[in-house]
Specification:
With 88 residues, this protein is α+β, with helices and mostly antiparallel strands. It is built from one helix and six strands. It has one domain.
């Protein structure tokens, strides 16, 4: 996370500028029995896909099997122009 930075103007007044909001390119969302239990943020699909596999293994499933369970739903979402869309 970026920190705020000081800006010194010509008139010697010091003000603070907060960082601009950042939107993650990809999310990995874990839903446990209908409730979102975990949201992870990534900059690339490759990172998100790796995390998807790790999450599946952490819960005792293969990546191809976790969404077939009655308990978990894990999905990858991509940021488009104005919203997230489910991609995996």
């Amino acid at each position: 996370m970026k920190s705020k930075k000081n800006i010194i103007k010509d008139d010697a007044v010091i003000s603070n500028q907060l960082p601009q909001p950042h939107i993650a390119k990809y999310l990995v969302v874990v839903v446990n029995r209908g409730m979102a239990s975990e949201v992870n943020y990534f900059n690339s699909f490759k990172e998100a896909k790796r995390a998807f596999g790790e999450i599946a293994h952490d819960h005792g499933y293969k990546p191809s099997e976790i969404n077939g369970s009655d308990k978990y739903d894990v999905s990858i979402w991509k940021w488009t122009e104005d919203r997230y869309e489910k991609v995996y």
